[in-house]
Amino acid sequence: MVYGFLIFWLVIGLAVFFTAMRGGPRGARESLHTENRAGQRAVLAAVTVVFAFGLVVPALVLAFNGADKASVAAGGVHLNAEQQHGRYLFSQSCAVCHTLRAAKSNGMIGPNLDIRLGSQIPTEAGRRELVLNAIAEGRARGLGQMPAQLYQGKDAEAIASFVAAVAGH
Ligand code: HEC
Q: Which ligand 1 atom sits closest to the C-alpha of 90?
Protein backbone atom coordinates (compact mmCIF):
# COMPACT_ATOMS: atom_id res chain seq x y z
CA MET A 1 0.00 0.00 0.00
CA VAL A 2 2.81 2.38 0.93
CA TYR A 3 4.63 1.54 -2.31
CA GLY A 4 1.46 2.30 -4.23
CA PHE A 5 1.40 5.70 -2.55
CA LEU A 6 5.03 6.28 -3.48
CA ILE A 7 4.50 5.31 -7.13
CA PHE A 8 1.36 7.45 -7.30
CA TRP A 9 3.31 10.55 -6.25
CA LEU A 10 6.23 9.71 -8.50
CA VAL A 11 3.90 9.49 -11.51
CA ILE A 12 2.13 12.74 -10.61
CA GLY A 13 5.46 14.48 -10.03
CA LEU A 14 6.90 13.27 -13.32
CA ALA A 15 3.75 14.14 -15.27
CA VAL A 16 3.68 17.69 -13.92
CA PHE A 17 7.43 18.04 -14.38
CA PHE A 18 7.42 17.03 -18.06
CA THR A 19 4.33 19.07 -18.79
CA ALA A 20 6.13 22.10 -17.36
CA MET A 21 9.33 21.33 -19.25
CA ARG A 22 7.39 21.26 -22.53
CA GLY A 23 6.02 24.71 -21.76
CA GLY A 24 2.76 23.46 -20.37
CA PRO A 25 -0.61 23.25 -22.09
CA ARG A 26 -1.41 26.46 -23.96
CA GLY A 27 -4.40 27.44 -21.81
CA ALA A 28 -2.55 26.89 -18.57
CA ARG A 29 0.38 28.90 -19.82
CA GLU A 30 -1.80 31.83 -20.76
CA SER A 31 -3.78 31.88 -17.56
CA LEU A 32 -0.61 31.59 -15.47
CA HIS A 33 1.26 34.24 -17.54
CA THR A 34 4.30 32.05 -17.85
CA GLU A 35 5.47 33.52 -21.15
CA ASN A 36 8.30 35.32 -19.39
CA ARG A 37 11.34 33.59 -17.87
CA ALA A 38 10.60 34.52 -14.25
CA GLY A 39 7.15 32.98 -14.53
CA GLN A 40 8.56 29.81 -16.01
CA ARG A 41 11.10 29.62 -13.23
CA ALA A 42 8.37 30.04 -10.62
CA VAL A 43 6.38 27.20 -12.17
CA LEU A 44 9.49 25.04 -12.28
CA ALA A 45 10.15 25.79 -8.60
CA ALA A 46 6.56 24.94 -7.68
CA VAL A 47 6.78 21.71 -9.64
CA THR A 48 10.04 20.82 -7.93
CA VAL A 49 8.44 21.36 -4.51
CA VAL A 50 5.48 19.12 -5.41
CA PHE A 51 7.88 16.53 -6.75
CA ALA A 52 10.05 16.65 -3.64
CA PHE A 53 7.03 16.26 -1.35
CA GLY A 54 5.87 13.29 -3.41
CA LEU A 55 9.15 11.61 -2.53
CA VAL A 56 9.79 12.88 0.97
CA VAL A 57 6.38 12.20 2.53
CA PRO A 58 6.17 8.55 1.43
CA ALA A 59 9.81 8.05 2.37
CA LEU A 60 9.09 9.29 5.91
CA VAL A 61 6.00 7.10 6.12
CA LEU A 62 8.09 4.13 5.04
CA ALA A 63 10.84 4.89 7.52
CA PHE A 64 8.54 5.31 10.53
CA ASN A 65 6.30 2.41 9.61
CA GLY A 66 9.31 0.16 9.50
CA ALA A 67 10.59 1.18 12.94
CA ASP A 68 8.24 -1.23 14.72
CA LYS A 69 9.45 -4.29 12.89
CA ALA A 70 13.02 -3.36 12.10
CA SER A 71 15.50 -6.02 13.17
CA VAL A 72 18.04 -3.33 14.01
CA ALA A 73 17.06 -1.41 17.14
CA ALA A 74 17.74 2.27 17.66
CA GLY A 75 21.35 2.19 18.82
CA GLY A 76 22.35 -0.37 16.21
CA VAL A 77 21.83 -3.68 18.05
CA HIS A 78 20.56 -6.54 15.88
CA LEU A 79 17.46 -8.16 17.36
CA ASN A 80 16.29 -11.71 16.85
CA ALA A 81 12.58 -12.53 16.58
CA GLU A 82 12.20 -13.07 20.33
CA GLN A 83 13.83 -9.72 21.10
CA GLN A 84 11.64 -7.92 18.56
CA HIS A 85 8.62 -9.38 20.34
CA GLY A 86 10.16 -8.23 23.62
CA ARG A 87 10.51 -4.71 22.26
CA TYR A 88 6.80 -4.70 21.39
CA LEU A 89 5.82 -5.94 24.86
CA PHE A 90 8.16 -3.42 26.48
CA SER A 91 6.46 -0.57 24.61
CA GLN A 92 3.09 -1.85 25.82
CA SER A 93 3.79 -2.16 29.54
CA CYS A 94 7.19 -0.90 30.61
CA ALA A 95 7.78 2.21 28.52
CA VAL A 96 5.34 4.33 30.55
CA CYS A 97 7.65 4.10 33.55
CA HIS A 98 11.13 3.48 32.15
CA THR A 99 13.47 5.26 29.80
CA LEU A 100 15.17 2.93 27.33
CA ARG A 101 16.73 4.47 24.24
CA ALA A 102 16.37 1.42 22.00
CA ALA A 103 12.62 1.36 22.71
CA LYS A 104 12.43 5.14 22.26
CA SER A 105 10.77 5.42 25.65
CA ASN A 106 11.09 8.29 28.12
CA GLY A 107 9.35 7.05 31.27
CA MET A 108 10.33 9.00 34.38
CA ILE A 109 8.71 6.91 37.14
CA GLY A 110 11.20 4.07 37.37
CA PRO A 111 14.97 4.10 36.91
CA ASN A 112 16.45 4.81 33.47
CA LEU A 113 17.29 1.30 32.27
CA ASP A 114 20.12 2.44 29.99
CA ILE A 115 21.86 3.62 33.18
CA ARG A 116 20.63 1.09 35.75
CA LEU A 117 21.43 -1.88 33.48
CA GLY A 118 23.65 -0.62 30.69
CA SER A 119 26.17 1.14 32.93
CA GLN A 120 25.91 -0.85 36.14
CA ILE A 121 25.51 -4.51 35.12
CA PRO A 122 28.44 -5.60 32.96
CA THR A 123 27.14 -8.81 31.36
CA GLU A 124 24.12 -9.45 29.17
CA ALA A 125 23.30 -12.57 31.22
CA GLY A 126 23.39 -10.51 34.41
CA ARG A 127 21.08 -7.87 32.95
CA ARG A 128 18.68 -10.56 31.76
CA GLU A 129 18.51 -12.11 35.26
CA LEU A 130 17.84 -8.75 36.91
CA VAL A 131 15.05 -7.88 34.48
CA LEU A 132 13.43 -11.31 34.91
CA ASN A 133 13.61 -10.88 38.67
CA ALA A 134 12.15 -7.36 38.56
CA ILE A 135 9.25 -8.56 36.37
CA ALA A 136 8.55 -11.59 38.58
CA GLU A 137 8.76 -9.90 41.98
CA GLY A 138 8.09 -6.26 41.23
CA ARG A 139 9.97 -3.57 43.10
CA ALA A 140 9.26 -1.32 46.07
CA ARG A 141 12.64 -0.47 47.51
CA GLY A 142 11.94 3.16 48.20
CA LEU A 143 12.33 4.47 44.65
CA GLY A 144 8.64 3.98 43.80
CA GLN A 145 6.35 1.09 42.96
CA MET A 146 6.73 -1.44 40.17
CA PRO A 147 3.96 -4.04 39.99
CA ALA A 148 4.96 -7.72 39.96
CA GLN A 149 4.02 -10.19 37.23
CA LEU A 150 3.24 -7.73 34.45
CA TYR A 151 4.38 -10.60 32.23
CA GLN A 152 5.08 -14.28 32.74
CA GLY A 153 6.75 -17.17 30.98
CA LYS A 154 7.88 -16.63 27.41
CA ASP A 155 6.72 -13.01 27.35
CA ALA A 156 8.81 -12.15 30.41
CA GLU A 157 11.80 -13.90 28.83
CA ALA A 158 11.35 -12.03 25.55
CA ILE A 159 11.38 -8.68 27.36
CA ALA A 160 14.38 -9.64 29.49
CA SER A 161 16.27 -10.77 26.41
CA PHE A 162 15.43 -7.53 24.55
CA VAL A 163 16.30 -5.21 27.44
CA ALA A 164 19.51 -7.08 28.26
CA ALA A 165 20.68 -6.78 24.65
CA VAL A 166 19.98 -3.08 24.16
CA ALA A 167 20.39 -1.39 27.56
CA GLY A 168 23.05 1.29 27.32
CA HIS A 169 23.09 1.35 23.51
C1 HEC B 1 4.26 1.72 37.20
C2 HEC B 1 5.60 1.99 36.76
C3 HEC B 1 6.46 0.83 36.32
C4 HEC B 1 6.20 -0.09 35.34
C5 HEC B 1 4.94 -0.25 34.48
C6 HEC B 1 7.39 -0.91 35.22
N7 HEC B 1 8.33 -0.50 36.13
FE8 HEC B 1 10.17 -1.24 36.36
N9 HEC B 1 10.47 -0.06 37.98
C10 HEC B 1 9.61 0.91 38.42
C11 HEC B 1 10.15 1.53 39.61
C12 HEC B 1 9.50 2.66 40.40
C13 HEC B 1 11.36 0.87 39.90
C14 HEC B 1 12.31 1.11 41.08
C15 HEC B 1 11.64 0.61 42.35
C16 HEC B 1 12.57 0.54 43.50
O17 HEC B 1 13.70 0.06 43.31
O18 HEC B 1 12.13 0.92 44.59
C19 HEC B 1 11.55 -0.10 38.82
C20 HEC B 1 12.67 -0.91 38.68
C21 HEC B 1 12.93 -1.68 37.58
C22 HEC B 1 14.19 -2.35 37.32
C23 HEC B 1 15.45 -2.29 38.18
C24 HEC B 1 15.39 -3.30 39.26
C25 HEC B 1 16.58 -3.21 40.19
O26 HEC B 1 16.70 -4.11 41.01
O27 HEC B 1 17.32 -2.24 40.10
C28 HEC B 1 14.04 -3.04 36.16
C29 HEC B 1 15.08 -3.90 35.48
C30 HEC B 1 12.69 -2.80 35.68
N31 HEC B 1 12.06 -1.98 36.57
C32 HEC B 1 12.18 -3.34 34.52
C33 HEC B 1 10.85 -3.19 34.15
C34 HEC B 1 10.24 -3.90 33.05
C35 HEC B 1 10.97 -4.85 32.11
C36 HEC B 1 8.94 -3.52 32.99
C37 HEC B 1 7.86 -4.02 32.06
C38 HEC B 1 7.50 -5.40 32.21
C39 HEC B 1 8.73 -2.56 34.07
N40 HEC B 1 9.91 -2.40 34.74
C41 HEC B 1 7.53 -1.93 34.32
C42 HEC B 1 8.42 1.26 37.84
C43 HEC B 1 7.80 0.56 36.83
A: 37
